[in-house]
């Protein structure tokens, strides 16, 4: 997930200072990944296979390239992808 999406969701569901939240997220021990041509080809395949929006397909392609099977998202469109489990941010009790 991209930082802008996390901040967007936080703004919608939590009364918080999203700039401070964004800074806190950047200070976490998080691995940031680059987007390359093979990943974009995988994204196109996933758009065709699952009829996803491009950004959602890019997230899924990135997950698959890193062998990640759990996604934290409010986007129920991911519930139709058998390879992954979607969890709501609110379900994490953070």
Nutshell version of this structure?
The chain is mainly α. The chain is built from four helices and two strands, in the order H-H-H-H-E-E.
Strand content: 5-15%
Order of helices and strands: HHHHEE
- Tell me the overall shape: globular
Query: Number of DSSP strands?
Result: 2
Overall pLDDT level? 88
Structurally, how many domains make up the residues? Answer: 2
Q: What Rg is obtained from the alpha carbons, in whole angstroms?
A: 14 Å
Q: Helix count?
A: 4
Q: What kind of sheet is the major sheet?
A: 2 strands, parallel
Describe the overall structure.
By secondary structure, this protein is mainly alpha-helical. The chain has 2 domains: 1-32, no CATH class; 33-94, no CATH class. Helix content is 49%, strand content 6%. The protein is built from 4 helices and 2 strands. A two-stranded parallel ribbon has the order 1-2. The longest helix has 14 residues, at 37-50. It is globular. The two termini are 17 Å apart. The mean pLDDT is 88.
């Amino acid at each position: 997930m991209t930082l802008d999406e996390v901040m967007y969701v936080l703004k919608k569901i939590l009364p918080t200072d999203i700039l401070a939240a964004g800074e806190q997220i950047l200070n976490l021990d998080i691995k940031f990944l680059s987007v390359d041509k093979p990943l974009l080809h995988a994204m196109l395949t996933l758009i065709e296979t699952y009829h996803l929006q491009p950004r959602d397909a890019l997230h899924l392609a990135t997950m698959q390239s890193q062998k990640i099977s759990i996604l934290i998202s409010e986007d129920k469109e991911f519930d139709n992808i058998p390879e992954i489990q979607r969890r709501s941010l609110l379900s994490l009790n953070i």
